[in-house]
Amino acid sequence: MKINKHFLTFCLLGLSLSLFAYDGVGHRIIADIAYDNLTAGARNQVDRVLGKRGMVYAATWADDVRSDSKYAYSYPWHYQDLDDNMSSADIKKLMKNPTAEGEHLFFAIDSMEVRLKKDKNDAEALKFMVHFVGDLHQPLHLGRKDDKGGNKIEMNWFGRKTNLHAVWDGSLIDSEKMSYSEFSQYLQDKFEPRKAEFKKHNLLQSVEASYAVRNAIYAYDNSDTSNYHYVYFFADKRDEMIYRGGIQLANILNAIFK
Length: 258
Hints:
Layout: H1 5-18, H2 23-36, H3 40-50, H4 54-57, H5 61-64, H6 88-96, H7 105-118, H8 123-136, E1 154-157, E2 160-163, H9 164-174, H10 180-190, H11 195-199, H12 203-219, H13 227-256
Antiparallel strand pairs: 1-2
Helix pairs in contact: 2-8, 2-9, 2-10, 2-13, 7-8, 8-13, 12-13
């Protein structure tokens, strides 16, 4: 059988791209961990609004709708540019005044909480909340303004040109070659001994933890071009951020839907 070389090239390109198009996996892992840690009442309400396990399936919705001009206003909600060397007091002040530097991630989470407390059936606010708490625990969504959260920092990832933000959005997770449900179970098993500890943490503590990892990412010696070493160095930090995201999302929704 004769195979058209252009068709073959297209197929191989599609396969290559698909291997790294898993940004949604991280959001689904966080939503899945959160779902498993909802109270019975909160889970019933979430299912009533979004359908059975709907919060997991809708975890990427806020990214999807950015291509819709009606939701163009939400683009800045996905990130919160933070300066270097911020203290806990600095972060706390910004979280208490979430519009001080424009309407960004802190504002979005605060606004969705207000909306859900006012109307527990607000499906849009719930889908936004699920996604934005996930964004909060991707450390480069708290990145530097001048490099757009690592988007301007070029990297080679196992022979493919990419950027630092994309590595943290998807490539680091994809390196484990697990589905979202497998990764979720892995993290819940891994952090079971610390579950009670993380459940006690408030949103500020989550931000501080994510900011600390963000600083470690920027401090990493990028002259070391070994991607294997990069995965080894950051795997535990990545895992903790994703797990924290799930527990913090559960905490927020449990409080709203109590």
